[in-house]
């Protein structure tokens, strides 16, 4: 009997939620279906989702096609109107077992996908218990939604206000996942550094992380997803300096390197603060690497403003760069600002990517001759503590950690030899 195929677009949070969807659909007895978990960050992400929906109907004419995720939450009527689509679920409904039980209404709509009560956290914990058994790495959602309103971003309208998973629920989920064989946890959320503001006692992300590591000593590796540089708390900095199990890799949500553009984006940090954060990362952990997000061609961005973003790649030493060509999101303040011509946006994005590629090559070359622990993700491929992909000898079982010597760097990867 054909099973359920899930096609995922977008962020790590969506990847996590796709696994929750898989378990929920299985518990409901759903089969012979394709579920498309959409993203609304850019127009390109939505275009690719529509392509995937059409392709799924061509390839599987008899299967039920269900569309969910942020794009479907923001415009359910748009996706319900597609002739290929049988049902549309929003970000709350997609995580419920009953949403996948027959019969489906043509469109299901609901509110934000993570409520404020502990009961919902318990439900999400149960859904996550089987997500990562036997896998090398697993994503754990600890926060949802966003209270900020960056002028370019539509996601708060799809995800709702910031909500945090209670610490006890996170600890229990991580224990189950580690017991199943997973060696690295990646904590994820829409606005991860906002963690705890809605919980009793207002625990910070750093306090929660310290308690998690203390409560689960059997967890070998913990990694954080994207951080707002203006919200990294003192506890997290101390933990980053002192705790070897917290990986020496921070990914920063920078978005731009020009102060006026940052102001027009309604970001909460300056260029100088971004550089100071990058410097502090390396002062605390010299072996650390930095990743970041940058947007190319934000409205009103001049050549000089763009040059400041381009220079930021080198000034911050950004080895793992995610570049987003600006994509107008209807209903956001930035959509009303004077746009940069699309060919210029594409050219600037290409220049940023080239700078990121060059910086990664420098970073990897600097590691050759050194050694480090590498988590085997699949036979012959691993992940260094500082996040680089590593080609490995042999066919070690995924989930094992090897101490290797880095002997070469090529094509955006390191080559490791047994140490």
Total domains, how many? Answer: 3
Under CATH at level 1, the class of the largest domain stands as Alpha Beta
- The CATH topology annotation of the largest domain reads as pyruvate-formate lyase- activating enzyme
* Proportion of residues in extended strands: 15-25%
CATH architecture of the largest domain: Alpha-Beta Horseshoe
Helix content: 25-40%
Output the structural class: alpha/beta
Continuous helix count:
13
Overall mean pLDDT: 89
Distance between the termini: 47 Å
Give structural notes.
It is a single chain. By secondary structure, the protein is of the alpha/beta class. It has three domains: 4-100, 3-Layer(aba) Sandwich (Rossmann fold), CATH 3.40.50; 118-367, tm_1862 like domain (pyruvate-formate lyase- activating enzyme, Alpha-Beta Horseshoe); 371-418. Helices cover 37% and strands 22% of the residues. The chain has 13 helices and 17 strands. The protein has helices spanning 12-28, 43-59, 70-74, 76-80, 118-128, 155-159, 167-179, 205-215, 234-242, 259-265, 271-284, 303-315, 342-367, and strands spanning 4-8, 33-38, 64-69, 87-88, 137-141, 143-144, 163-164, 184-188, 221-224, 249-255, 289-296, 318-325, 371-378, 381-384, 389-391, 401-410, 413-418. Strands 13-14-15-17-16 form a five-stranded mixed beta barrel. Strands 1-2-3-4 form a four-stranded parallel β-sheet, sandwiched between helices. A hairpin with a 4-residue loop joins strand 14 and strand 15. Helix 5 (118-128) runs parallel beside helix 7 and helix 8 (205-215) runs parallel beside helix 9 (234-242). The longest helix has 26 residues, at 342-367. The N and C termini lie far apart (47 Å). Residues 105-134 have low confidence and may be disordered.
């Amino acid at each position: 009997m054909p099973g359920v195929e899930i096609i995922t677009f977008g962020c790590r949070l969506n990847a996590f939620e796709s696994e929750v969807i898989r378990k929920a659909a299985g518990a409901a007895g759903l089969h012979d279906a394709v579920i498309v978990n959409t993203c609304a960050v850019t127009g390109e992400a939505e275009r690719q989702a529509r392509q995937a929906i059409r392709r799924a109907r061509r390839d599987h004419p008899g299967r039920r096609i269900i569309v969910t995720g942020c794009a479907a939450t923001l415009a359910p009527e748009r996706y319900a109107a597609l002739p290929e689509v049988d049902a549309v679920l929003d970000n709350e409904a997609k995580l419920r077992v009953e949403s996948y039980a027959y019969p489906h209404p043509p469109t299901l709509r609901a509110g934000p996908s993570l409520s404020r009560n502990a009961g919902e956290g318990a439900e999400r914990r149960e859904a996550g218990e089987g997500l990562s058994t036997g896998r090398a790495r697993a994503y754990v959602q600890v926060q949802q939604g966003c209270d900020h309103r960056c002028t370019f971003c539509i996601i708060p309208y799809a995800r709702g206000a910031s909500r945090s998973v209670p610490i006890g629920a996170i600890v229990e989920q991580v224990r189950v996942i580690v017991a199943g064989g997973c060696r690295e946890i990646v904590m994820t959320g829409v606005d991860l550094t906002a963690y705890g503001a809605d919980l009793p006692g207002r625990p910070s992300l750093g306090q929660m992380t310290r308690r998690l590591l203390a409560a689960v000593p059997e967890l070998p590796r913990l990694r954080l997803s994207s951080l707002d540089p203006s919200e990294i708390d003192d506890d997290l900095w101390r933990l980053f300096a002192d705790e070897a199990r917290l990986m020496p890799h921070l990914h920063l949500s920078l978005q731009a390197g020009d102060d006026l553009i940052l102001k027009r984006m309604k970001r909460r940090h300056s260029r100088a603060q971004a550089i100071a954060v990058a410097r502090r990362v390396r002062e605390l952990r010299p072996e650390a690497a930095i990743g970041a997000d940058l947007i190319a061609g934000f409205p009103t961005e001049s050549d000089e403003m763009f040059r400041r973003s381009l220079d930021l790649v080198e000034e911050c030493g950004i080895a793992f760069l995610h570049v987003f060509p600006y994509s107008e999101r209807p209903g956001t303040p930035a959509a009303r600002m004077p746009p940069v011509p699309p060919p210029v946006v594409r050219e600037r994005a290409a220049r940023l990517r080239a700078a990121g590629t060059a910086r990664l090559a420098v970073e990897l070359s600097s590691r050759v001759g050194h050694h480090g622990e590498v988590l085997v993700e699949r036979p012959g491929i691993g992940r260094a503590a500082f996040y680089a992909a590593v080609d490995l000898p042999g066919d070690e079982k995924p989930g094992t950690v090897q101490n290797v010597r880095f002997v070469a760097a090529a094509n955006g990867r390191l080559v490791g030899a047994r140490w």
